[in-house]
Amino acid sequence: MKERLEQLKLEAIEKVEAAANLKELQDIKVAYLGKKGPITEVMRGMGKLSAEERPVVGQIVNVVRAEITAKLDEMVAKFEQAEVEAKLREETIDVTLPGRKVNTGNHHPLTAVVEEIEDLFLGMGFTIAEGPEVEQDYYNFEALNLPKGHPARDMQDSFYITEDILLRTHTSPVQARTMGKHEGKGPVKIICPGSVYRRDSDDATHSHQFMQIEGLLVDENVRMSDLKGILETFAKKMFGEERDIRLRPSFFPFTEPSVEVDISCMMCGGSGCNVCKKTGWIEILGAGMVHPNVLEMAGFDSKKYTGFAFGMGAERIAMLKYGVDDIRHFYTNDTRFLKQFGRV
């Protein structure tokens, strides 16, 4: 039996050394050390041995099992190491190669302009107010001194959903809603940025959907000079400290008196060029003192409270600030255009 065990050990070790992969090693282990293997059979036959032979054979069996197991473990480790090395070779990273550029985004120019304007007015004590883009006719027109049938409604060709529901044509409804929430008590000091919609043919200077930013201040003893001071500060911060402004008489149903606001041309400094059509001035927004009717409809005593309002198109401000000649560039998502304003 001793010779049999020695022969099994040599056979097993020879096969282990000749194995080509981990599967073959596992098969050898099962064949020699498994429950049905020859070494297990030898152990089962030990009961027929004498009491003197039994411990001797048992010791030999343990040595044979240990040597075969050690050889198996050695070869398993060798194959596993070979697999790791092969995988490392396949996944080798050449650290001498230059890195691949990662393109990073930046704010859209319209977003940047809106946030710059918001920061400016927040610094002057205004707060930001928002409202629904699908609006009631009452807030969009009637609460702003534009009753049904008023001819000025034709100036804002609207997208109506029902007779009394439409896409807002300006952000002025936010002003009306905010004044209503104050229940006739001032002060009210807000700006209202947001998208507005009008049935307009899209071209280089018009769009059926655009961004508007309006401002409102209602309090006691608010004067036109306060409005001019606020707008002058805005113009200088947005377009340069050398900018001047001028107010021209105009008409808006919700303000009285009403004005158009111009800034001195940033291209020619006011001497006259093609950008300002030789006038030296560029129109940027409309403004005026809040009409008493608008104050009364919002619950304010027009004899006690006065206020001013102004409104501008974010696209127009961005076009003037960045020298963009076509409003449609802001909406085409052309990265060649957007790259000019930051990382894309």
Specify the CATH homologous superfamily of the largest domain: Bira Bifunctional Protein, Domain 2
Question: What is the number of helices?
Answer: 11
CA radius of gyration is: 43 Å
Total strand count, please?
Answer: 9
Query: What would CATH call the architecture of the largest domain?
Result: 2-Layer Sandwich
Shape: elongated
The CATH class label of the largest domain is Alpha Beta
Q: Low-confidence spans: pLDDT under 50, at least 5 residues?
A: none
Oligomer kind: single chain
Enzyme class: ligase
Family: Belongs to the class-II aminoacyl-tRNA synthetase family. Phe-tRNA synthetase alpha subunit type 1 subfamily.
Subcellular location: Cytoplasm
Catalytic activity: tRNA(Phe) + L-phenylalanine + ATP = L-phenylalanyl-tRNA(Phe) + AMP + diphosphate + H(+)
Describe the structure.
- Helices cover 40% and strands 19% of the residues.
- α1 (2-18) runs antiparallel to α2 (22-33), α1 (2-18) runs parallel beside α4 (53-90) and α2 (22-33) packs antiparallel against α4.
- It is an alpha+beta fold and 344 residues long.
- It has helices at 2-18, 22-33, 38-44, 53-90, 109-123, 137-140, 172-181, 224-239, 292-297, 314-322, 335-338; strands spanning 127-128, 134-136, 165-167, 188-197, 209-220, 245-252, 255-264, 281-290, 305-313.
- It folds into two domains: 2-90; 109-341, 2-Layer Sandwich (BirA Bifunctional Protein, domain 2), CATH 3.30.930.
- The two termini are 81 Å apart.
